[in-house]
Amino acid sequence: MGAEVVRYTYRLRPGARAERALRGEWHRCRFLWNEAVHQHRSGNRPTFGKLSTLLTAARRSNTWLRAGSQVAQQQTLRTYGQALGHSFTVKGRGRPQPKSRKKTLPSLEYTTRGFSIWDRRLVLPKGVSVPVVWSRELPSEPTSVRVYRDSLGHWYAPFVVRREAKRAPVVDGGIGVDWGVTTTATTTDDRHDLPHLGHRSRCAAELAKAQRTMARRRRKPGRQSNGYQRAKRQAARLHKKAARQNQHDSRVWAKQVVDNHHLIAVEDFKPKFLAKSTMARKAADAAVGAAKRELIDRAERAGRKVVLVKPAYTTMTCSSCFARAKQQLGLEERTFRCETCGHTDGRDRNAARVILAVAERGHTSVDGISHFQPPSGSVDGAA
Ligand SMILES: [Zn+2]
To answer: Mean pLDDT over residues 185-214, rounded?
Structure first.
């Protein structure tokens, strides 16, 4: 498989001085970006080479620009050039727009010439040094880094590194995955089920509380009160926390599933995120979304066979004889009972088995297979 290029992201904890320097750096880069947009609009068609020459000249005469990192400034123009290129070649991609002071978040890019890691700190040009939270070891020397701040005011650094691609163990056998609210993933093998963990519902309850506070403090027109802003920040923080936990659980789970199966049949569930649905429901849907994404990505990277199965009729069909029940199971009904062959199973377990059986027979929906149809030959990854 060879090496793959991936990003390893770490939290940064800049002190007041470093944060001021990063903001200053960002304002200079933003100024250059906006200059490039302006040049383009006034009829010039500056290439990256042309912009780069202009930058060199500008830095010679302008002490404010010279106070910043040349690498970060060059990278800004390079990114602009790429965005401009994409606006011509990628459908639906607009021209690069000016970055406003208030609405855009700081983002700076450095290539190898522009940064180093010294004494476990990220060292940037002009004497800026930022402590990094090394949550895991870098697998190799990074070739570039982006330093950015999110809407909560947290700083992060995704390092671009090369990593030896690990070959997934050779296995055969398949697994079917059915998504749900109380159990995020029910599979054909109960050792691989992913429960909807308690900390997530706790998070959802706190989030619901923060949102109620927001609603109570909301004024109709004009500027919102400080109390409202505080509740809003709290809600954003909780949202992010839940997303991080989902992602962590999903990663651990997906690795287990992918390492142990060759065929991975997944219910093609699409959460609707209706405005009317409850907070608990939204949290459950978000957990499913994260787990599904992680599972499919990982399985595809590992070269496994992934089959997305349409959810229609999966809960109404018997996984033993494929007879379809005449009526939809009520939501509160947790047990599936087949009227044709007498097979009984947990509702979601039965659905997971149906999903796997559909994929094993080379189909993507229950409609493709009929009653008593045996599997069509063996399943192999080349198909
Ligand atoms: Zn049956």
So the answer is: 84
